[in-house]
Every structure is written in structure tokens, then in C-alpha cells.
Amino acid sequence: MIKAYVREADYLNFYKKQTEAYSTRSMELVKVNALFMPTLLMLVGLSTILTIYLGSIEVINGRLSLGNIAEFVIYVNMLTWPVASLGWVITIVQRAAASQKRISEFLKEVPDIVSGAEPCDTIKGHYEFVNVSLGYEANRPLVLKEVSFKIPAGSSLGIVGRTGSGKSSLVNLLLRLADPVEGTILLDGKNLKTYQTDSYRQHIGLVPQDVFLFSDTISANIGFGIPGKEVTDALIEQAARNAEVYSNIMEFPDKFNTRIGERGITLSGGQKQRVSIARAIIRNPDVLIFDDCLSAVDTITEEKILKNLTEVMKNKTTVFVSHRVATVKFCNKIIVLDEGRLVEEGTHEELLQRDGMYRQMFEKQLMENPEPDLS
Ligand SMILES: Nc1ncnc2c1ncn2[C@@H]1O[C@H](COP(=O)(O)OP(=O)(O)OP(=O)(O)O)[C@@H](O)[C@H]1O
Ligand SMILES: [Mg+2]
Q1: Does ligand 1 come within 6 angstroms of the Cβ of 295?
Q2: This prediction's pTM
Q3: Which CATH number is 127-368's, of 3.40.50.300, 3.40.50.2000, 3.90.850.10, 3.30.300.10?
Q4: What is the whole-number distance in angstroms between the Cα of residue 137 and the centre of ligand 1?
């Protein structure tokens, strides 16, 4: 970004200022530290000299014995170190207090999502949204408004809508990354909140909208979907094949052991998305959620992936989020969101018959992108 927007000079300047400020402060600290020990030693010496000087006068005047002076000097020396350490300890405690304040902020943070008590060993995957509303912040408008629909177990649901219409927010609700402010989400007839969150999420394979890849090998990134001890090469390969990224990977010199850079910068956008899909598929979850995960893939590859997925999705509840009608038209049911409201619901054919938003989107996209010929 810095190169593309030619902001090198500004950022160099910024960096210079920061390091200079740091260096000035460090020098100040070093100066204080350098003065500290000599001053301390000087004060200790001074106190001894003073004691001896004033004490000697008293001895000459016969008011004190020599033994008293010696005793006093020894006591002063014995007390110097504990008192000096006290000061030292106080500075350490104050430094720690500053750090502790930050640490406590984290420790005191209470998660918004409270895990339920019920373990979730097996799920059928029947979801029901009943008048669900969602808002992220109290004083901002709702992101989802009274949304109600069902996803029968083992069926697929497509969600389409303009950007910002609340599709990803709906996915967050499904994963319990957010809780509705009103209404309920039922899973197999029970409120989603009653289940333990981690045992529930174990059943879900998510392909998020923002692909997140680790700076590791491709196989590690795909294998991330399942516990380390269950990962095998065969599983990784199969997942890559289903996600249509196998041939791409085989073209890399190190194949599955190719290391990908930070956040996957060495892969193309579409390759990243497909690695992310492979990660979800390898999990063989009961519920699959794809959040706009084919946006960077060309239509022909998309069709291939969708074809492979029909096998993977068999008897699994699947949710497809997309801007493109072509991605969701195979779904058993499609819902259309507009500004947080569910405006249309039905199969592809049913929605086309209605002269609504879905049909408008379909016609526009058909003009831009005619159906690919797979033969
Ligand atoms: N974590 C968040 N905190 C506050 N507001 C949010 C948050 N996430 C999303 N929003 C807001 O919620 C609204 C819906 O966002 P959402 O991501 O669900 O849209 P979307 O339909 O997935 O859009 P897109 O097609 O661009 O992915 C937006 O107005 C957005 O600003
Ligand atoms: Mg989104």
C-alpha cells in the first residue's frame, strides 16, 4: 500500500520521529540511572562523615563514648541498603502497575457470547430463525430486522443480497459469533444458546469472506481444519481436489509443501479462496457455510467447485452466501436480504417467476456474465 500510494517519504518521516522520540527518552532514562548510584553512595558517605564529625565533637565534650559513635556508624551503614532497596522496589512496583493495568483490562474482559451447558455430540442441522434481529452496537440501527426462515436438516440455503445487507452478519449468528438482540435461533428444535459453543462449532465448516491463511505450508493450511493427529496426505489431497485447487498446487515446485507468505500473499485471490474451501471440506462437518467464497473464482471454476461440492454436501446442511445468483441457484431454498430484511424467499424458479429483486439481479448478471458452457 505504501508503495502503491507513494507514501514512502511520509512513513520514513513518521518512523524517524518515533525512533528519535524513543532515543531521546532512553537517553534521559540512562542519565537518571547513571546519576542514581553515585548520588546514593555519596549520601551514604556523607552521612558517615557527618556522624563521625558531629560525634567526635560530642566525644571531645565528653557527652558520648567512642563506642557509641562506632555503634552509630555501623547502624547507619546497616540501614542504608534496606532503605535504598525500598526506593528501588517502589519504582519496580510502579512500572509493574502500569503494565498490570493493561493486563487487567484483558483479564477482566467478559465474553459477550456465553456458552450454554448442553454438550452437542451429534446434530441433525435443522435451523429455524424466529423473528431474529441483530445490532452490533446499542445506539446504531439494526443490521438484521425480524428475519424468520427455516433450513431443514440436510438441505442447502442460498443467501443473496446487496453489499451491507447483512449476509455475513447472518453467518455470524449461525456460528454464534454474535447473539441476536431479539428473537431466537433454534437448532434441532432447541435454542442455539443452550449448547456449549465450542462443541457446537466443532460441527461447522466455515469458509469466511475474508480468507485467512497462515504463513505455513499449503498442506498445514488445509490440514488446519481438523485436529493434527487426524491429518493424512490422502485427506488433504482429496480436499484440494474437491476445492479444484489440486492442479494449481501440483504446479508449484514444492507442491503441497509450498510455503505461503504472510496471510497467503504468494497465492492468487482465487487460489487463496480455494485453499480456504479445502480447509472447510477436510473437516467433513455436519454444517457447511460458504460466505462469498467464490467471488474471486472465474465462473467455469466456480461451476466445477459447485459440482464437486454436491457430493461433499450430501445430507449436510449447507449455507451459500453470494452476490452472484449463479452460485446459489442450485440451493434448495434461497433467501434475499435487503437492508437487513428478508424480502424474498423460495427456490430459484419460484423467485424468477416473481418480479422482484432476485429476478432483477439474475437478469443483470446474466447480461454481464452469460452462463458458462461446460461441455
Ligand atoms: N463487527 C461489526 N460491528 C459493527 N457493525 C458491523 C460489524 N460487522 C458488520 N457491521 C455492519 O453490519 C452491516 C451488514 O454487514 P454484513 O457484513 O453482514 O454485510 P454483507 O451482506 O455480508 O455485505 P458484503 O456483501 O459486502 O459482504 C453493515 O452495515 C456493516 O457496517
Ligand atoms: Mg459479507
Answers
A1: no
A2: 0.75
A3: 3.40.50.300
A4: 12
